[in-house]
Design goal:
- It is built from 7 helices and 12 strands.
- Strands 2, 3, 7, 8, 9, 10, 11 and 12 form an 8-stranded antiparallel beta sheet that branches. A two-stranded antiparallel sheet has the order 1-6. A two-stranded antiparallel ribbon has the order 4-5.
- A hairpin with a 6-residue loop joins strand 2 and strand 3.
Length: 318
């Protein structure tokens, strides 16, 4: 089943979807697109910047980037074994995030500035291409945002009634997310509904949870303590593992962490790889293999943020 078939089955005359239904429809589409197929899956949502919001009218048909694991061996001299666990790395990243974060309290009329470098190398051969994307996202969604993705620049209109994203992108909603890692997991799991903190997360819910946690971590700027809580929560997700080899990434020796999920399931390819400094565990960026939109061309892609902050207007830099 592809995304067009899923959209065809969606009844546009039905009552509006609840927040939870919208999020879960998006997740089910993601799972369907990751199932084995004869042709590469295309599209992107988690691969997109959190600045690009999801409209309710097309939430059930929003495409998500399909990824596979990027090889992490960097040569004969690269260590062949990794002694640390994913829990150690992610909890180290949580501690480092707390140590280095700069507490911010942006006003609703301000913008979140992000500068990100993305490098794409064709798997079939050919020159790599590097993009430097700068984006300005309205803090409360009430103003036009200006975003760049792979060099494509566009104005994004203010948030309108009926638009929805999960995890949330508006600062006031981000501030409402709990800083306790366990409660954060359950809140994200419930997709905007009243969290049931007494219910344990089912095995079939963990893939969705890790998607939402990773999506939250894609924000360049988060309220104080939230990034650390997200790393701690991700450390508790079953199926998160450390890659056996270290790699070089943006001038650092890095450790890769990926989600593999249930063995033999749709997550067997391991998904995207989060990269952390091998000494400090500071989060560096990510690598993944992705298919270009509306094509079958496959790329190895890396991306990392080089600057972020809060500014008063579009095109202003911190």
């Amino acid at each position: 089943m592809n995304e067009i078939e899923l959209l065809r089955d969606w009844d546009a005359d039905a009552p509006p979807l609840t927040d939870a239904a919208r999020a879960r429809a998006r997740f089910r589409l993601y799972q369907a697109m990751r199932a084995p197929a004869t042709t590469p899956t295309t599209g992107r949502a988690l691969g997109r910047r959190p600045l690009l919001r999801i409209a309710v009218a097309c939430a059930a048909a929003t495409a998500v980037t399909a990824t596979v694991v990027v090889a992490q061996n960097t040569g004969e001299n690269a260590p062949r074994t990794q002694t640390v666990s994913a829990t150690t790395v992610l909890r180290g990243a949580a501690a480092e995030a707390l140590r280095t974060e700069k507490p911010l309290a942006p006003r609703d009329d301000q913008f979140i500035y992000t500068k990100e470098v993305i490098k794409r190398t064709p798997v079939s051969g050919g020159p790599a291409k590097t993009y430097v994307d700068e984006s300005w996202s309205s803090v409360d969604g009430s103003k036009k945002s200006y975003v760049s993705e792979l060099g494509y620049k566009q104005w994004v209109p203010p948030a309108q009634k009926g638009e929805y994203s999960w995890p949330p992108s508006q600062w006031s909603k981000l501030e409402q997310l709990p800083l306790d890692p366990g409660k954060l997991t359950i809140t994200l799991r419930e997709a905007g509904t009243k969290p049931d903190f007494d219910r344990k997360t089912r095995a079939d819910e963990w893939p969705e949870v890790q998607i939402f946690l990773t999506g939250l971590l894609r924000h360049s700027v988060l309220p104080k303590g939230l990034r650390s809580a997200a790393f701690e929560a991700l450390a508790a997700v079953p199926g998160v593992e450390v890659l056996p080899d270290r790699t070089e990434f943006n001038g650092h020796t890095a450790i890769g962490v990926r989600y593999v999920g249930p063995r033999g399931g749709p997550w067997q390819d391991g998904g995207r790889v989060l990269l952390f400094d091998a000494k400090t565990y500071r989060y560096l960026g990510l690598r993944e293999r992705t298919t270009a939109k509306l094509t079958t061309k496959v790329y190895d892609q890396s991306q990392y943020i080089v600057a972020d902050g809060v500014v008063d207007r579009v095109f202003q830099r911190p």
